[in-house]
Specification:
alpha/beta; 30% helix; Rossmann fold; 3 domains; single chain; 458 residues; 24 strands; Alpha-Beta Plaits; globular
Length: 458
């Protein structure tokens, strides 16, 4: 597959990294010659310096033979024009664009992206993607990570194992006997910031971050088995009134009646705009690091504090202050992965990494075919793939034992119609099953081939 990626920032770099590892022909465009030079040194891709919206630049990048264009520059307009030119001049079949400005996404203008006007096949709004990711964590309290699987039939969840966690120091193989009426499977462990893809003899230890897959109907009871019985927050403070904070507030207002929301925003004009858009939300103009503002927000009575400003350090420090002043739980947005190891030691309950979430969202649309979902764990140490089994798949009608899976590949669940099965060695994979598979970064391509779900655009 020949892919053109417009924009060599963090998102573009990581998409190029994913696709180039899988023997695709990848070309990346950026106006910054230094970024292109770095990518040429780091990755097996072609780099082109220039504007992605320029027809000559796209032609030099191989647009005449491209199967897909992914436009993720910092400019919405460049992304849109690049897709338009890719369609009109080069007939590129698949076009994906990242668009931040919410006015472009207003339903009133939905016709803008129709095939007869600006034919973009997939539009990714990073702020809404991140807001929804945070909303998922708020809706399942006590978790560090939440993803819905199989159209909501199953969940993949991350939790910290505290000293009172009932399942610590117990071989994973014994958990199904101890909780025979619960449907769940531990698929990965993060211990001292080192990932482990466990075998049945592995045991959970205090401080581990455990990732498990469970039937949604059993989710709350499984969380209780891990020592987490936190109640859903009804009083929430959001610091940062940008598009992420605004999107999250709207989601909470629309989906959770009775939730009391306060928002801290330091920009006066933005605070006034928020007060007009969010009539039932209390808007506080000020800095989330200001003790008086936190006291005005009654932080000691708040169940969850969400920091989503565009400054990592402010988000981390504000979260720590909120906890010090009595807030029960904090969720912190961090763009720089160097801060990831601080989650546990500092007491931050959940850290949201936008880059990993956005890359996974885009890759989900790249990997069509039989792949129905793709999710990154933490900084991408492993991927969880939702794959549908076809009649002609090589694994159809085979037991898991017969598959001889590598050690760093785990089948976490099999969804058959409305039933969520936690598989064992004798479980037989059948056509039309949806299989949830965790694989290390190195094994993802092998898994795709094994399950006959290679990249398939057409």
């Amino acid at each position: 597959m020949r892919v053109i990626i417009c924009g060599a920032g963090q998102v573009g770099y990581n998409i190029a990294n994913y696709l180039s590892r899988e023997d695709n022909d990848v070309t990346i465009i950026d106006v910054d010659a230094a970024l292109i030079s770095q990518i040429n040194d780091d990755l097996d891709v072609n780099g082109v310096v220039g504007y992605a919206s320029n027809p000559d630049t796209l032609k030099a990048a191989g647009a005449n033979d491209a199967d897909m264009i992914i436009a993720v520059t910092m400019s919405d307009e460049v992304n849109m024009v690049a897709c338009q030119i890719g369609h009109s001049l080069f007939s590129i079949p698949k076009k994906i664009a990242r668009i931040r400005e919410q006015s472009y996404l207003d339903p009133a203008w939905s016709n803008l992206f129709s095939r007869s006007h600006m034919p973009i096949d997939v539009i990714i709004s990073p702020e809404l993607v991140i807001a929804n990711d945070i909303y998922q964590r708020l809706s399942v309290p006590g978790t560090t990570f939440v993803n819905t699987l199989a159209d909501g039939k199953a969940h993949m969840v991350g939790v910290i194992c505290q000293e009172d966690c009932p399942v610590i120091n117990t071989p994973l193989a014994h958990l199904s006997n101890l909780f025979s009426d619960l449907s769940f499977k531990v698929i990965s462990i993060l211990r001292n910031n080192k990932p482990i893809i466990p075998d049945d003899d592995e045991q959970l230890m205090v401080g581990d971050e455990a990732y498990f897959v469970t039937d949604t109907q059993h989710l709350q009871r499984v969380l209780a088995a891990f020592g987490h019985e936190e109640k859903e927050a009804r009083k929430i403070v959001i610091t940062g009134g940008g598009n992420i904070g605004l999107g999250l507030a709207n989601m909470l207002r629309e989906r959770n009646r009775g939730v009391q929301i306060k928002m801290i925003e330091k920009s006066g004009p933005r605070a006034r705009y928020l007060s007009e858009q969010l009539e039932d939300v209390i808007i506080l103009k000020g800095n989330g690091l200001d003790k008086e503002i936190l006291e005005e927000a009654s932080i000691e009575n708040v169940e969850t504090y969400v920091a989503v400003t565009n400054d990592d350090e402010s988000n981390i420090l504000g979260s720590l202050l909120a906890k010090q002043y009595g807030c029960q739980r904090v969720i912190t947005l961090v763009n720089n992965e160097v801060y990831t190891p601080l989650v546990g030691p500092l007491g931050i309950d959940a850290m949201v990494l936008p880059k990993a979430t956005i890359v996974a969202t885009i890759m989900q649309h790249v990997r069509r075919g039989r792949i129905k979902g793709l999710h990154n764990l933490r900084d991408g140490f492993a991927e969880v793939v939702e794959a549908e089994v076809s009649e002609t798949s090589s694994i159809a009608n085979s037991s898991i034992k017969e598959l001889n899976l590598p050690q760093d590949v785990i089948i976490g669940a099999v969804v058959r119609e409305d039933e969520v099965i936690m598989p064992g060695p004798e479980t037989v994979i059948k056509p039309d099953d949806l299989v949830v598979i965790l694989a290390s970064r190195e094994q993802v391509q092998h898994v795709e081939k094994m399950f006959s779900v290679q990249v398939d655009l057409f």
